[in-house]
Amino acid sequence: MMNESCPHPDLLRRFVATPYVFTKGDGLNRICVESNDLEIAWSVRHSYIARTQRSKAGGLYCKLIRDRTAPADGSEVSVVSDGNLRVLHRGSGTILIHDLEKSELLGFICPNVTAQELISSLIPALLDLKS
Amino acid sequence: MQVISIGQTALPHSRELYFAGAACEFETSSSELVRLLERLSTPANASRSGRFSMRVAVDELSSEPAGTPHFRGLHHVVIASFGSANVFVFDILRRRLSATVSGTLARDYRFWKEKLIPIAHGVLGAAMGLVPVHCACLESEGEGLLIAGMSGAGKSTLSVALAEGGFNYVSDDWTYISRHDDCLLAHGTSAPVKLLPDAVKHFQNLQEHSLQISMNGELAYEVDIADVFHAQVERNCEPRWLIFLERMQRRGGEFVPMSSAETRSYLDSCIERLPRQLSEAAAMREQTIESVALLPCWCLQYGGSPQFAANLLWEFVAERRAEVCA
Predict the structure, then answer these.
(1) CA proximity to B156, closest of B220, B111, B105
(2) For chain B, does the N or the C end have fewer beta carbons within 10 angstroms?
(3) How are strands ordered across the β-sheet holding B51-59?
(4) B122: closest CA among B270, B235, B283?
(5) What angle is formed at CA A97 by the lines to CA B130 and CA B119, rounded to 5 degrees?
(6) Pairing of strands A31-35, A60-66
(7) What confidence tens digit (pLDDT) does each residue in A25-78 have?
């Protein structure tokens, strides 16, 4: 009677596989970028390495999901910050989360946001935000 | 780009509130929101599960109502947005909910009662020793009856039939279970009872209500069980039995004892996977699930109306009590 499975869909999309992984450096300066989208993974790695060379930024762990089911419903950008967390929204479908204490950048990128917009505009807006 | 720094916003109104056995340190810029949430807070509970903080900045200039919900989560963070003006950030590791909402949403009693508070328990519960179990919960004379079953088994209609018949109602869909000194405590939330359209043939008074699209997209009646069915609502109880519902075609009913391994299998199938970043919360949850699996458990295979199944359960509870007295 208990053999019927009750599958739980990953509604939050927490467990999307991120096969594209780039790492550089070690210890506190380690940069790790994981994504399910090769262009995002490569672009973010490339731009963050350039950023660390310019400004001696510390290490960062990034997990960025290309979210093909997210709504592409607007282009206005807003940031909510509280304590160690900063959250950027572009419309409702693109969400970037920066945990300052854990040096983590997590996010979901909706289909109409390009890797170029991500690295040139959205990520810098979040990482460079003054507290 | 609009930047809202909740940390730098004056949040002069603070209260300690209690929801489903958890203490909430609440801070906000809106005195109206404080009053609204005070109506939803339960009395202080000595056996409360854990604490979390909730900080809500209210933009009184914005009148945007709750929009289409959008949820995403990675690692220890879950984001819920209801339109661009209403954003909730759940930090599970730090047990914190930070939010910015419109003035209109801050005054929307049903939103906080039926959506936000239940969602907060679902998301932050894991870090506070509250285990969400996909089951209804009814109470009689201090003894709790958990009613589990696959979708469509009839948990909600049976819950309403039991509540109409004299059981006290705790929850109809998700019940939050905590463990204190080897005792289990089952908590309900303020979520409305959700009944699918065909429930109207068993409960005539639903005809006065209209169907709504619920958060998972289903068309359903979402009603306050106390208002519509005059049920007595209890906030929590100590669960004594777990009944697993299974429908059958012919009219009738039979209780079949279930092993703790079978119960465990069901509980495992209905709990949410947690990311490895929340391993401590997962370990705490594991202990509670182990205790729930040790509850006396039966499978009720039944065919017939919810009222018929409710009568079977009344007889079942009376027999269990008679066994204890004998």
Answers:
(1) B220
(2) C
(3) B13-19, B22-28, B51-59, B96-102, B87-91, B77-82, B69-74
(4) B270
(5) 30
(6) parallel
(7) 888 888 999 999 999 999 999 988 887 777 767 789 999 999 999 998 888 999
Look at strands B212-213 and B219-223 and give their pairing: antiparallel
Q: How many CB pairs under 8 A join A and B?
A: 124
B79 closest CB neighbour out of A78, A84, A87? A87
Q: Which residue has the tokens 């890797």?
A: A115
- Determine which of A13, A68, A82, A84 to mutate to test the interface with B (most B C-beta atoms within 10 Å): A82
Q: Give A114-117 contacts, CB < 8 A, sequence gap 24+.
A: A115/A37, A115/A39, A115/A40, A115/A43, A115/A44, A116/A43
Compute the distance between CA of residue B265 and CA of residue B282 in angstroms, rounded to an integer.
Answer: 16
B108: tokens are: 């929307």
What is the β-pairing status of strands B183-187 and B236-247?
Answer: antiparallel
B/e letters for B195-209, b = 16+ CB within 10 Å, e = fewer, are bbeebeebbeebeee
User: For residue B231, what pLDDT band results from cuts at 50, 70 and 90?
Assistant: very high
Question: pLDDT class for B179, splitting at 50, 70, 90?
Answer: confident
Q: Which of A16-30, A52-66, A116-130, B57-71 has the lowest mean pLDDT?
A: A52-66
Angle at A113 between CA A110 and CA A117, to 5 degrees: 145
How many Cβ atoms are within 10 Å of B232's Cβ, its own excluded?
Answer: 12
Question: What is the dihedral sign for C-alpha B56, B60, B64, B65?
Answer: positive
- Pick from A78, A92, A106: which is nearest to B77 by CB? A106
pTM summary value: 0.86
Both tokens of B290, joined, read 């182990």
How far does chain A reach from its first CA to its final CA, in angstroms?
Answer: 56
